[in-house]
Amino acid sequence: RHRGEPAPSQGGGDGNEASASLERKVSASENQVFTSSEEFYKWFAEVEAMYLSVSESKFLEYAEDLKGHSVSLEAIIGQCDDALAQYDNLKLQQLNVRSKTQSVQAQCERLSREREQLEEFANAVKSKLEFFDELKRIGDQMGAQQHHQGSAEDYVDSLGKIDDCVAYLSSNTQYLDAGSYLAKYRVLQNKALASVKQFVCSSFARATEEVQAAQSKPSAENESSSSATGIETALLYVKFKAAVPDLRRVIGAIQGRLNRQDYSRLMHDLQGFYGERRVEILSEAVEEHLVGYQSSNELPMLLRLGCAYLIQVTQMEYQLFRYFFPQSDPQVLQVVVTPLCTILYEIVRPYFIAMYDVSGLCAIVSILKCEILEGQFRGERAEQLQAMRPVVEEILADAQERLVYSMQHYIRDEIAYYAPTAEDLCLEPPPPEEKKEEEEKKGGDGKATTSSGAAGENGGAEQGKATGSADLANLYPAVQNTLVCLSKTYGCLELETFGGLAQECVQYCTEACIVASQEIAKSAGLLDSQLFLIKNLLALREQLSLFNVDFGSDETELDFSHMRDHMRRILRGESSLFALGSSNAVFQLLGSARPRVSRMRLDSKKELEKRLKTSCESYIMGVTKLTVEPMLSFITKVTATRVASTKKPLKDHAFATPSKLVEIVSGVNASLEGPLQETIGRMGRYLDSPTTNAVLFKPIKSNIAEAHGQIARLLETEYDQETIEMVPLMPPPKLMAILDGLA
Q1: How far apart are CA 684 and CA 680, in angstroms?
Q2: Model pLDDT, residue 456
Q3: By the 8 A CB rule, do 323 and 281 touch?
Q4: Strands 596-603 and 552-559
Q5: Where are the beta strands (DSSP E) in 634-694?
Q6: What does the pLDDT read at residue 288?
Q7: Of 147, 240, 300, 523, which sits with the fewest C-beta atoms within 10 Å of its C-beta?
Q8: Which of 730, 725, 722, 710 has its CA nearest to residue 642?
Q9: Residue 663 Cα distances to 289, 657, 666, 675, 721, angstroms
């Protein structure tokens, strides 16, 4: 700061007054004249002194102020020091309090944990003791229920508590007296289960009594319901439900514990008692309805109506059973349904026993198998009717067993031991004009009809197929009976059973045709008998191809034939029964002479085909001999002569002279124009199929042409031109024209 510059004043009014005095003195000396330097210095000293006093007064005042402030600050600092000291002291106290608080908190937490542990321990002890204390309470409750029947909830609660206690004590046998308490609980549990069984059974019995009382009460409501819907009435189902409304809770509790043997046994007893009560209610009504259906006196209608009614009963019983036992297997419903279905079984069984008609039995089997089992017992209804299936299958098995028995009698009487009449063996085919008129009457469609009536309902389709290509009326009756029998029963029996009967049936039919052909051969000739056999066996083979079944069977036999030599030696004394060693007769008999097991395969269809082939070959050879027998004999003699290696020319032999050759060829030509045409025409009338005729005639034509060819070659090689011109041998084109005309 400059020297003449005043310091900042903090003093107030005194400094201002000194400054004003100094200014007045300077102003007063502006006009003053100094005479000497001393005066000036004096004046200057005064002014300077005044100026200094003015300047220093401000600083002094400011210094005083600063001192005052310093004192104040020192007081404040002292106070702050005291405050800091008090703060430090407070902080120490706060730390002390905090440490004490934390210690107290830790102790509180420890005490809280200990309290919680003690509470948990007390609760655990209490909960464990409850399993022991419940014994008396449950015992008292069960005693009260015995004197006064409790509600369903009481029984469910008691069972739940007992089960919990038994389970706990069983898993904690280390506790004191746990074994004795467990035994007591077991006894109490048995009593509880017995009480529950008594409660449920008494409820079902009470409901049964109410329903039976309502049944016996002759009310208009009962009469209308029974006449309208029979067993499906509110009387038999809704009223039964309403009589026991609180059983579902008890039964549901039992079903939830079926993994235990005692509860499973209890459920089985309850279901059995339920079934007995339902049968007691329904049996009379069911029997009344089924006996009413019996008045129709027709077994098919009785089966249809009876099964339809029992299906309705089974469905209603299934719904009622599900109402009381929702988690049980519906198969258990058999305890109710089986006795009811047995009523129908006992009614229809006498009908089966009295039936011998294969067609009627096939119709019964078709109704049971197709209409009922396959038509009704499927889809959503399969589970509902599952309990009824065993009885229906048993009825079906009886019907099939009776069908097998009747079929065996039919095969024996109508096929195996069929006695042909003179009309059956008279096989003179109708003239072509009558045959054509007969076909026009049939509609000209070539489809055959049966002479033994329509087949059963199940075999109708198969019979239509089996008679589509052959007229059964023109076949041998044994063949007709065979085809009709097989077509009716196909599908009514199991394939294995049907296959065995079919194998037997075809075997007897083939044998019957052979016997009949032998009789025809005695009266009409060999060719007619062969045609008869071919026609019937061919029709039989054709129809058998429609049956998808194995006509073979495996048979096992014991062969004792080789034992005769050993027995003979024993009887002669050549082998001793008391010899020691390998020569002992018993030892040899048990060793090398034991029975042999022989297995063979019998296939009646293959035997039929083999017999048919033999018959066709015999017929072809017979027709060939009928036509060209002289040529064949001549060729045989020529072959024998050549084998004998004679040097004599062929024409010099007595059997091969030109005149003999002319006679032979002329006879063959006559046969071609006469007997052959008649035989081929007869074959065409016997066998309706042009294809079959062509198949049989082709080898005949080939044999005739071959015989003519051999004669022609012999003429060219062994005879001269004159003889060739003399012999009337037909040229091949003319021969083929004649044979083709016959075809």
Answers
A1: 6
A2: 38
A3: no
A4: antiparallel
A5: none
A6: 86
A7: 147
A8: 710
A9: 89, 10, 5, 17, 18
Instruction: Select from 524, 465, 530, 472 the least CA-distant residue to 700.
Output: 530
Distance between terminal CA atoms of the chain?
Answer: 165
Answer whether 573's CB lies under 8 Å from 519's CB.
Answer: no
552 phi, psi to nearest 5 deg: -110, 165
Q: What whole-number distance in Å separates Cα of residue 159 and Cα of residue 408?
A: 63
Cα 652 from Cα 672, distance rounded (Å): 28
Q: Count Cα neighbours of 399 within 13 Å in the Cβ-side half-sphere.
A: 29
- What torsion, rounded to 10 degrees, do the Cα atoms 583, 584, 586, 592 define? -10
- Residue pair 477/509 in contact by the 8 Å Cβ criterion: no
For 169-179, the pLDDT digits (tens) are 777 777 777 77
- What is the distance between the alpha carbons of residues 371 and 369, in angstroms, rounded to a whole number? 6
**Band of pLDDT at residue 16, cut at 50, 70 and 90:** low
Helix (H) or strand (E) holding 265: helix 261-294
The helix-helix angle for 261-294 and 334-354 (nearest 10°) equals 40
> Is a pLDDT exceeding 60 seen at residue 258?
yes
Rg (CA), the chain: 64
Instruction: Return the structure tokens found at 559.
Output: 């062969």
Distances (CA, A) of 546 to 460, 542, 587: 14, 8, 55
- pLDDT of 486 > 70? The answer is yes
Residue 196 CB neighbours (<10 A): 23
Q: Which helix (H) or strand (E) holds 231?
A: none
Q: What is the SS3 string spanning 124-171? A: HHHHHHHHHHHHHHHHHHHHHHHHCCCCHHHHHHHHHHHHHHHHHHHH
The whole-number pLDDT of residue 453 equals 33
Name 529's Cβ contacts closer than 8 Å, sequence gap at least 6.
517, 518, 520, 521
* 461: CB partners within 8 A, 6+ apart: none
Closest CA to 563 of 578, 536, 585, 537: 585
| 3-class DSSP assignment, residue 176 | coil
pLDDT, tens digit, 9 for 90 and up, residues 111-155: 998 998 888 888 877 776 666 666 667 666 666 655 455 566 666
Interatomic CA distance for residues 485 and 456, integer angstroms: 10
Residues 6+ apart with CB under 8 A from 172: 128, 178
Which is more confidently placed, 297 or 201?
Answer: 201
